[in-house]
Amino acid sequence: MQVAVNPSDELPIYRQIMRQVVEGIAGGGLKPGEKLPSHRDLSEQIVVAPLTVKKAYDELEALGFIETQRGRGTYVCAALPKVDRDGQMERLRQDARKLLSQAYLAGLRLPEIVELVRSANRELTKKEEA
């Protein structure tokens, strides 16, 4: 798992770590049962305090995305948390409206926006579309 953080990002570093782990799971780059780097290893890799990584892992564990097995390590959960599909669809609809508003204000047209979404999908899933 490769994690990259940006100290000047508006999102706190532990949230950046969380986002990348969730994106890895959602995109299929992190499989159920896959072992994650230890707090110390990941903190050395991205040059942050181990407690920052621990905070991210603790929150991901509380959300049901990962599990820590004492003495063995931290793993992606075999059974991921259930999502309230209707609630999630409404949140996504609101996010889509925000995206469209920002894109239209930037002068983009719908075909350009669709290509941006396709590009983001390729990045997230690390594969080409059919």
CATH homologous superfamily name of the largest domain? Winged helix-like DNA-binding domain superfamily/Winged helix DNA-binding domain
CATH top level label of the largest domain: Mainly Alpha
What's the rounded overall pLDDT mean?
Answer: 91
Amino- and carboxy-terminal Cα gap: 26 Å
Q: What's the architecture of the largest domain in CATH terms?
A: Orthogonal Bundle
Task: Give the DSSP E fraction (strand runs of 2 or more residues).
Answer: 5-15%
Structural class: mainly alpha
In helices, the fraction of residues equals 55-70%
Largest sheet: 3 strands, antiparallel
- CATH topology assignment of the largest domain: Arc Repressor Mutant, subunit A
- Flag low-confidence runs: none
Into how many domains do the coordinates divide? 2
Q: What is the strand tally?
A: 3
Strand order of the largest sheet: 1-3-2
Count of DSSP-assigned helices = 5
The arrangement of helices and strands along the chain is: HEHHEEHH
Overall form: globular
**Cα radius of gyration in angstroms:** 17 Å
Q: How does this model look, in words?
A:
It is a single chain. With 130 residues, the protein is mainly α. It folds into two domains: 13-76, Orthogonal Bundle (Arc Repressor Mutant, subunit A), CATH 1.10.10.10; 85-125, no CATH class. It contains five helices and three strands. Helix 1 (13-26) packs across helix 3. The longest helix has 21 residues, at 85-105. The two termini are 26 Å apart.
Strand and helix layout:
Layout (H helix, E strand, L loop, with lengths): L12 H14 L8 E2 L2 H8 L3 H14 L2 E4 L3 E4 L8 H21 L4 H16 L5
Antiparallel strand pairs: 1-3, 2-3
